[in-house]
Amino acid sequence: MVNKLVLEQYDIKQEEIERELEEIVGSDSLEKIEAVFDTSIKNFDLGTILKGRILGVIGNNVILDTGYKSEGIVPLSEFASHEEVEVGNDIEVMLESFEDDTGLIQISKQKADRIRGWEKVVNKYQEGDVVTGKVVRKIKGGLLVDVGIPIFLPASQIDIKPPGEIAEYIGKEVTCKILKIDEVQQNIIVSRRKLIEEERNKQKREFLDSVEIGQVVKGEVKNIADFGAFIDLGGIDGLLHITDMSWGRISHPSEMLAIGDQVEVKILDIDAVKDKVSLGLKQKSENPWTNVGEKYPIGSKIKGQVVNIMSYGAFIKLETGIEGLVHISEMSWTRRINHPSDVVAIGDSVEAIVLNINKEKEEISLSIKQVEQNPWTNIEEKYQPGHTIKGRVRNLTNYGAFIEIDEGIDGLLHISDMSWSKKVAHPSEIIKKGEMIEVKILSVDKDKKRVSLGIKQLTGDPWKKEIPEKYHVGDIVKGKVAKMTDFGAFIDLSNGLEGLLHISEVSKEKIKKLESVLAIGQELDVKIVKIEPEARKIGLSLKGVENASVKASESQEVPPEEQPAEEATENVAEETADEVKEEDNT
Question: Is 63 left (phi over 0), alpha (psi -120 to 50) or beta?
Answer without folding.
Answer: beta
